[in-house]
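Moderator note: this is an archived Q&A kept for reference. The question asked for a predicted structure of one protein chain; the sequence and the answer are reproduced below.
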Amino acid sequence: MFKRTKVTDGTATGQVGFRKKSKVPGVMITQYIEKLPEGKSHPDFTRKPIALTIQEGKFAFFKAIVTGDPKPTVVWSRNNGDVSDPARYQSKYDPNSNEHTFEMPHVKPDQADTYKCFAKNEYGQAMVTVVLNVIEVGFKMTKAPQQQAEVANCNFKKVLKRRSKVVPKAEEPEKKEGEIDPKFWELLMSADKKDYERICAEFGVTDFRWMLKKLNEMKREREEEQAEFVKNLSDLKPIHINADGTASFELEFDLLDPSSSIYLYKDGEMIPYTKELGDKMKHCLRKVGRKYIFSMRDLMPEDAGFYQLDVEDVNMFSTDFKMVDFLVKIQEVKAMEREDAVFECVISAPLSKLMWFGKNMPLEQGDKYDIEVSEDKLIHRLVVKDCMVVDKGIYAACAGIKSCNAWLVVEADKGAPKGKKSARKTTRAGGSGTDLQKVAQEQQQKLDKEREERKEKIKAAREAAAEAAAAEEPEKTADSGAGKDKGAAVEVERIDKTSVAATTTVAGDSGSGHSAGKASGGAKQDGSHADAGGGHSAGKASGGARKDGSIADAGGGHSAGKASGGAKQDGSHADAGGGHSAGKASGGAKQDGSPADAGGGHSAGKASGGAKQDGSHADAGGGHSAGKASGGAKQDGSHADAGGGHSAGKASGGAKQDGSHADAGGGHSAGKASGGAKQDGSHADAGGGHSAGKASGGAKQDGSHADAGGGHSAGKASGGAKQDGSPADAGGGHSAEEASGGSRQDGSLADAGGGHSAGKASGGAKQDGSLADAGGEPGITSGLSDILATRGQPAELTVKMNTDCDGAWFKDGEPLKSGGGISITKDANIHKLTIHSCRDTDSGLLRFVSGDLSTEGRITVGDVPEFDEDDLHKFSKPVIVRVGQNAAFKMPFQPQESLTVSWFKDGTELKDGGGVKIVREPNHSRLLLRDCLRSDTGEIKIQLKNPFGAVEATSQLIVLDRPGPPEGPVETVETTSSVIEIKWNPPKDDGGSAVTNYIIERQERGHSLWTKLGDVSAEKTSFRDRNVTHGKKYSYRIYAENPQGLSDSLETADSIMAGIMILSGPPGKPKVVSTSKTCINLTWTPPEDDKGVPIIGYQVEKRKKDTNQWLALNAINEPIEDVNYAVKDVTEGAEYEFRVSAINESGAGDASPPSAMACAKNPNMRPCFKDPEDFLVVRAGNSVRVKISYEAEPPPHITWLKDDEPIAPWINVINTEGMSQLVIPSSKRSDSAIYTIKAKNSVGEAFFDVEVRVTDEPKCPGPVELEQTVYGKVAVSWVPSPDQELDDRLYYVVSQHDSNTRMWKTVADRLFANTYTAHNILPGIEYHFRVYAKNDMGLSDPSQSPTWGANSNRVPISSNGVSSMEISFERPPSILVPLKVHTPPKGYQLYMTCAVRGCPTPNVSWYLNNTCINSDKNYYITNSCGVCSMYILRVRENDGGEYRVVAVNSLGKAECSTKLTVRD
């Protein structure tokens, strides 16, 4: 019985729905009535909607096509929500395409759902579901709870308590303005060196020297930490976005302890991850061998940040993930065919490469596409070259998760000639239509502005720190001495340690710090300048802190001492000098706005500038000796300078209370030199102090002049005291006495002389305003400048004065005298210093001093670059390579600073790129030329250049190749019946090596084979061929050979004949033997006169009727050796005539007379059919096509019959040459018949029968009944299928299901009866049976049996008081289902079946014409539970006859028989 399924959805009241199967997977069909009216149908989908994943804001739509009669109505719905809002959901129908469309413009994330489409009419409904996924763009607040839930599910609570060294933004303390982010150093330690400049520019760092020094220190510390957990850390690849939309970074390392924990951080916060990129977690860390790959899917803008990978507590890798946006997107381009199309865009941040896509395929630089990037990496272009119509489509640019796309429309060139390709155009179409350069410049300015703002913040932070430090500093005077200077320096040092001076040097620079001392710039609170000296010692050098925007620099500091600039509270200037010695140099403190400078400080003593309270200038001199030099204290605005201080003594400037000038002289000796005290505004200078004595200027009370002399001896010299204004001078002071400048009370000048002794020199005091000075007023007209000197060569320095005066030369603060390779000369007002042979020790700062005037210049001694002689000799040897090989040049040299290396080829400089690779190492340079060509041969030169000069080395590149072909043309020197002599010229290019010989080959005319004749030496360019045959023609080709191979050949233009030509006479007239539509057979006789030359074959020519052209059927080099020939190159029905020529060694002779006209047609032929098929099975409703091929001449008349009757008019017959086709457009079962084709012409006729069977899937059998006759066996019977009477090939299949195995299995197949006995039926188990009808088209729907297993279904067995042991089930054999009569066509398959029972089981034998066939392999015989079957794969004629089945057991015998008739 049918099993009905009731459904309620979509059915009317009182209706029962039946589930139906659709041909389209995924469609659910409910039919309301059991049987549909004829011509009506339930709804169904021929095209169902397709699942869609789309980005938020895009246009989403579903399309469906439905069928049904009457026409169904289509309704859309969704699982979670309604679709009634017309602004968000629109249903449309296109009657032309029969498409139903459901549209969602500007789709939103909340529209992601499962949608349903219903198609309904009065007979049923069809329903299909489809899923819409929406990708969200931007940060969504609703994501936070979801992400927290994910973390909770993965139990990361304990792990997430860890923290990265980079503090999260929410927890980081308030950062001082201008302080560098710790990410700066983390990024540098994981970046390549080529990225250092970009990272520094991003964070506003400009002092690369300081940055590299600190970075190296941090790297060493980090590597020591990493070595505790990992080894072989390498291949660090920063984060990048992949083509599949994920982002990843990679690194390789080996864990020392496999159990070590690996953590991931984003912006300092730990993020959970999985080992594989799954659906639940966003982040994944995979291990592939030694490589660790961090991946991140579903990218969003909030994923940008700073990512770190740590092993335990040690950072291994850091990378910054940035998102860029499109400022100008690509626009639609309309281009003509063969024109270039340009897409261009501008992005918000520099990016070296965008990902370009064309029609969903990634695009790369190549012949078809050009990908261009501007220098600032903001403008990106895609050029589609030579556009064709197939290039039309959507092109897209992707930068991370951001993308933009546009159409390329290619229009055909209507002006192009038909059938030909139009010419390539040089114009470009497209572009953004905006000024991209302007947009990029504005964006670059914006980025630069942000960078400058960061620099200004750093600068402001330094100045604020300086002001804060100066506010806490008490006011100090210039005569505060060493203790106060030291205190100021300590305070500056404290400020430096707490400020952000270590972060950047935009406005403050710290020197190198090579010695053990310490150098620091003074603190300032105004806008003045404080510089700390060189600081080349092992101490510390740092720039001073400022709060006003001024500059604080730390100077050289070459010694082990300490140098610091003085503290300032106004806008004055405090500089700390060089500090080259072990002493201490510091600038004086100032409270006004005057400058205070600390000098060089080259000695082990102490030099400090005086303290100032007004705006005056206090400078501390060089300090080259072990003594002490300090500037005097000032209270007004005057100038107090401390001199050089080169000796072990003490030099100090006098104290001033007005605005006068007090200077302390050089102080080169071990004594003491000090300037006099002034109270008015006058000038007091302390002289040089070069000896061990003491020199001081006399005291003055008026306006007179008191000078202290040079003081070169151990005596004492002093200027006298004056009260009136007269001069009192102290002489040279060469003894051990004391010379001092007089004191002044007015505004006059008091100078202390040289002070070269160990005594004391000071300027005198004045009280009137008069002038006290030493010497005149000379001037320098031509001073010193920095020069470069070559080692071993002389150098000369010249100073020109405006007057004839004396002067002294100093080098690095030390006096110079003639001798030791140095000459000092004076010619009137010209002073010269000559170094006869420069050495490295001659480098330094030279200074010329004349009185108060000085000029200085630095001399740098170096060498012109030079090559080692062995290396130069090795380099000068030529490099010889073959074509296609790489040529490499290497030149070692001594490492030098400011060395430029250049490579040249034939005078043209080579640049790195393409086939040229240039490698520059500190001690050598290499040049690699890839895939060399012959044209690359030439001179290779390397040039080393530095400021001192340049040097060059030359080599040769020789590229070896095959020689060029010999020069032609080939000349014929001699030709006779036995000899041919030829001549040629040598090749123009010998390929780099001399030609060794020439190879000569020969080809005889009419042959394809080239034969080598021999070779000749390179000196000989001619060849005599003595092996020739008279009358034959020959072609020659010549090759040049060198060690690299053979050249291309030089070939003769025409064949050369040996001797004179002798041709044969004409053959006999050709005769036509036979004709057909594809072939004409000819024969002829040989020529009567062959002229004494043997004939090697013949050439046949044809001419078509009504034409004048003779066409050769074979080439002369392919002669026909026989005197007959079959001409197959003919057209049916055309008439031809033929002629023949005899061929000998000299060629083809005269042609024969033409033959008679012959027509290409077949002879008359009776029709016959070629390999026809005699049986055809077609599904009902499909078209029937019966094709029969035949041959006949003349063409026959074709007739088709159906069961010996004329065919119906709706059956089409299509006749073509050699084929006839019968076509039934839409077949029905009634079209099953035997169709006969009849072909008849004047010669005869032929017949052929074709059996056509039109059938369909069978209908299911009727109700199934179960009956138990004996224990353990159930008889299954059913009502036959309605198609059993219509289809003699229909049979049945039985399937069984039991409650024990719960599986359906086929228990009987190919049953032609309507019963089946099931065996081994056990009690207590439920059984079900299904019966299918099957034919050539397939299975029917099953008929379901009732459930077997209830006691009521069993046949009652009454014992009648007799014991069960007495019941006997034995019975003789009987035939339940007999054999049927079969009449299959020849070659078809056959099943023959009958049913037998008996107990014990009978033995069944099959007989054909009384012959047992049980063991015959042509028959497949089975016996399954009494169902006996025989199968014949292909029926033969001898298979016809009487078939008999005999069943025999111990109780009897039963048999049945049938006849088998085989049809042709």
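Archived answer notes: DSSP finds seven helices and 112 strands in the chain.
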